Structure formats: C-alpha cells, structure tokens
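Chapter review: from sequence to fold.
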Amino acid sequence: MKELQGFIARVMSDYFKHFECLDFVFDNTEAIAQRAIELFIRNASLIRPLGEGGKMRLAADFAQMEMAVGPFCRRVSDLGKSYRMLRSFRPLLFQTSEHVASSPALGDTIPFSIIIQFLFTRAPAELKSPFQRAEWSHARFSQWLDDHPSEKDRLLLIRGALEAYVQSVRSREGKEFAPVYPIMVQLLQKAMSALQ
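The token string follows.
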C-alpha cells in the first residue's frame, strides 16, 4: 500500500500537477482510481486462507486504499459505486457468513459474484474456488474476469465450482457439506433470480 500511495502521489506531482485545468485532470484520473479500487477488492476477495491476522491487515489495507487513490480525485466519495463498494466490503471481513449473506450492500453495491468468491475463503480446501478448480493463477482468473464482465458469466463459473464440490463430497460418500456451502448456494440462487 505504501508503494501504491507513493506511486500515485509521484504521478500526480510529476505529471498532472503542471496542468492548469484540474477539472479535466480529475475527470480523467477518477477512472484510474475506480479501476484500482475494483482490482483491490477483487484481489481481496481471493485471499485464501484468511485468518484473523490477515483480516486485520486487510482491513488496514482498505483504509490505506482509500487514502492512496485520494490524489486522483477531488473527494474519494466522488468515485461513486467503487467508493461505496470499498466502504461496504471492509466491515464484511469480520462478520459471520450469515451476516455477510444478509448484508444490504449485496447486489446493488457489491456484486454477488464478489461476495460468493469471498465466502470461498471460509470454506475447507476441498471446496475449491473457481480459479483453483480451473487450475488458473490469480492473474489468469483476473484476466478472465476482465474478459467476462457479465455477472451471469461470473456466477455460472462459481456455480461450476460449487457443483464440482458436491460431486467430490458424493464421490467420497460424504454425509455433510461445509457450513458455508448452503449459504453460498442460497446467495447464488438469489443472484441468478435477480438476473431473470
């Protein structure tokens, strides 16, 4: 985060501060700030496993991210949905899966696909994330998400990972699923019906 903050401050002072038309600069740098926030949240939702210490560090990174993108805009709150998503996601780090699933931020502020992806961090290793199931790196998965901006495509990929988990439990003749699994399925069904 310190590197990002330093880089953004340097870019603004070395390249953009010389322009007299700050409205033009901010109109164009806000998109960079929004993209940075979206990528940050995407990567935060992929961290696995996420212990208590990791949650604390990640929560601090959320606050740092807000400050880091500050030079790219008049006010960070001007970043709209990206800013609201950043502010809404942070408290979810410390909530139970049930509370995460009932968050009012779900759907409108934070896409279901990101929240379900985040819930994989609470699952046992047997319940593989979509990118793990496909044997992709984080970078490859991130590129796939960029290439597939449709929430439906993303949810279908998640559904495939959940179905593969069910098959693996059945193949070993397991009797029960991970506690987070029914919550993830419920959210997936809610998300798919919202797309109808």
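Two observations follow directly from the output. DSSP finds ten helices and no strands in the chain. The first helix runs from residue 2 to 16.
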